[in-house]
Amino acid sequence: MFDFLDPQEYDLLGAFWVTVQLTVYSAIGSLIWGTILVGMRVSPVPMMRGFASAYITLVRNTPLTVIIVACSLVLKDTLGFTIAGETVEDQNFWLAILGFVAYTSTFVCESLRAGINTVPVGQAEAARALGLGFNQVLGIVVLPQAFRSVVAPLSSVLIALTKNTTVASAIGVAEAAWLMKEMTENESDAILLVFAIFALGFVVLTLPTGLLLGWVSRKVAVKR
Amino acid sequence: MTEANTAPPMIRMVEVDKYFGPLHVLKNITLEVPRGQVVVVLGPSGSGKSTLCRAINRLEPINSGVIEVDGKPLPAEGRELAGLRADVGMVFQSFNLFAHKTIVDNVMLAPIKVRKMAKSDARRTAMELLERVGIANQAEKYPAQLSGGQQQRAAIARALAMKPKVMLFDEPTSALDPEMINEVLDVMTTLAEEGMTMLVVTHEMGFARNAANRVVFMSDGDIVEDATPQEFFTAPKSARAKDFLSKILTH
Ligand SMILES: Nc1ncnc2c1ncn2[C@@H]1O[C@H](COP(=O)(O)OP(=O)(O)OP(=O)(O)O)[C@@H](O)[C@H]1O
Ligand SMILES: [Mg+2]
What we know:
- The complex is a heterodimer of chains A (224) and B (251).
- Chain A is mostly helical.
- Chain A is 76% helix and 0% strand.
- Chain A has helices at residues 12-41, 46-60, 64-78, 88-118, 121-129, 134-149, 151-164, 176-186, 191-220.
- In chain A, helix 4 (88-118) packs across helix 6, helix 4 runs antiparallel to helix 7 (151-164) and helix 7 runs antiparallel to helix 9.
- Chain A is globular.
- The model of chain A has no long low-confidence stretch (mean pLDDT 92).
- The A-B interface holds A 44, 120, 122-123, 125-133, 136, 140-141, 144-145, 148, 222-224 and B 57, 59, 77, 79, 82-90, 92, 94, 96-100, 109-110, 113-114, 142, 144-145, 155, 158-159, 162.
């Protein structure tokens, strides 16, 4: 009954590898865009604050599936926008990442903002009093301390992202959930086993992430 | 004398008003601190001493009036303001050393990032300053590993690393255990003797008597007295200063 595990039949590792790639690229992008967003969110320039909070409110309250499907249908099919890739499959892979970054960055931003609130105002005041400009105060003094205090919440965001990548199957990206759907349709007699395998696969991806980042979180905590 | 060959005062405040909402915290304050002078600001809690201090480098914006540092009016927010702040050293009650950086990195940071000094030069200067305030052996530690007195001396070294024209101190010893107060006051006294222009908010009457050229007494947002320490402590003119001194000096 395990013959469907034959890699010739279903490329289980390949599918999870796509999941890992979606997660890693999206995580890097979200971290960067989320940091820029939080910079705007606390900026003294009202227009930047306005843009960031409007963006966050809009994107956070839109279902992820809608964002991902919109990236493919609206951006690519209607507007003809693609990021990279020759095949439709590849193009959708990168558009899915764009969607995940757009969505996950809002959670990164809100975590970081909570982190900024844990940094005593005196830290920023001392930096300003020394003549550092806004970007320097944020980049050198406030954000490094904020990041250290939000490793644990960011790790939850990362784990949520890993699971959210399953939404990419909605636009045909052949990641784990996409393969699972195919297998459940073809191997209906082993359906419980199929579910178990995929559940286990995600645990294998997320559990070490959580443990590792929990350890990092204690390691980098700022002592006051 | 003409305007050109008169050195401007290091700090000049003219008719400065500051409100927190409806609360009038600085009331038409006019104050000049000539270069090289050490001014101690005294006054009861809530009289506006910290606000005065913070207004001088615009950590607290004012509602009206003029503030000049070394003849230059305070710029509005932005690059020029940062430039002015670089010339004005500030020492806080709660030290505010950067918690994620070592002591020597705290001292080197602004010279490198603001003055664009080379790392090796910045480190050399930082070590000299830490030597001067007596904590060179703590250079590689993090702030949380130091005593309060050591942290405050590091904070003074950090401010001095920018070669400021004037130093502002807002109750630098108020957060310290009694046995650590003198190590910080000694550093400040030496600085005063070396000719640094200083504005010091403090409750340390010994420092006011010995190191100050001048005492400014504030109450309810007004400068009520402005005298030499000798005059102020022996013959205060106002009832409010007499009241304040009687409370301070009895314990
Ligand atoms: N950020 C603020 N918002 C509102 N009110 C404030 C703020 N900072 C200070 N105040 C008020 O302004 C008044 C003057 O405060 P300030 O801190 O300048 O007094 P101080 O003389 O330094 O007192 P202390 O000796 O307690 O430090 C006080 O009534 C205080 O409550
Ligand atoms: Mg105060």
